[in-house]
Amino acid sequence: xxxxxxxxxxxxxxxxxxxxxxxxxxxxxxxxxxxxxxxxxxxxxxxxxxxxxxxxxxxxxxxxxxxxxxxxxxxxxxxxxxxxxxxxxxxxxxxxxxxxxxxxxxxxxxxxxxxxxxxxxxxxxxxxxxxxxxxxxxxxxxxxxxxxxxxxxxxxxxxxxxxxxxxxxxxxxxxxxxxxxxxxxxxxxxxxxxxxxxxxxxxxxxxxxxxxxxxxxxxxxxxxxxxxxxxxxxxxxxxxxxxxxxxxxxxxxxxxxxxxxxxxxxxxxxxxxxxxx
Length: 277
Ligand code: SAM
Fold this sequence. Notes:
The chain is of the alpha/beta class. The protein has one domain: Rossmann fold (3-Layer(aba) Sandwich). Helices cover about 50% and strands about 20% of the residues. It is built from 10 helices and 7 strands. Strands 3-2-1-4-5-7-6 form a 7-stranded mixed beta sheet, sandwiched between helices. Helix 1 (about 10-25) packs across helix 9 (about 230-240) and helix 2 (about 30-35) runs antiparallel to helix 8. The longest helix is centred in the N-terminal third of the chain and has 24 residues, at about 70-90. The chain starts with 11 loop residues before the first helix and ends with a strand. The site of S-adenosylmethionine has 20 residues, from helix 1 and helix 4. It is found in: Mitochondrion inner membrane. One of its GO terms (biological process) is methylation.
């Protein structure tokens, strides 16, 4: 845990973003459920499904906030690990009790084999809430919390197998700089994955979505978190973010290969993926 140093945001946008998440941190999870009608959970599950991480993988979750992606990652890896153990045991023709107990060794039950998830966020408050959540869930071997800026990550080169950023990149001031940093900290062969609000493709859904977000989201923000402005900012930042194709191009320009995207919920959210070769 590195709560030791302060990251002081320099630009106006960065200051604003910092204040927004400082204000909403405590209510952040509740707001996410209320505003997305719980659907953000499915989007995050889909990210994990597409990632399909295996035991031993190292994840960096940037703008990781209260840790949703990292929790899901560790859970998924643990599940894979259990499955592999079960398969190994089943494939043994005449297993002795010794074989079985070796394969069912409970030594590491809490820690996915060498899998690590690092949650990195510029906002100490968001991380504090996430860490509390981890403690109350009795987790988390393999998890660490680091204060850091997506534009200047406090990690060495070639460290991670997977870099994720979920609903975070639109808050970053220089997206190209954040993409460069993602490329730098990934190992060759590593994967970049980003969940972000995007452009709704179906015109009917687009109209409904516009009405909902412009009119309802600031109201919910006021009612639940007592903070209209932060949630108005949220809606505006979604509108300003590049659409699926533009963002794909930016990822390619940063130097990633095999860049693809998938629309979720008709393009309300897009999942972009690319590889460092
Ligand atoms: N990934 C989490 C999730 O999906 O629930 C949190 C997303 S939240 C909408 C956006 C997060 O981005 C906030 O926690 C905020 O502090 C963080 N953030 C904003 N600018 C950042 C930056 N430059 N570097 C790192 N994190 C940043």
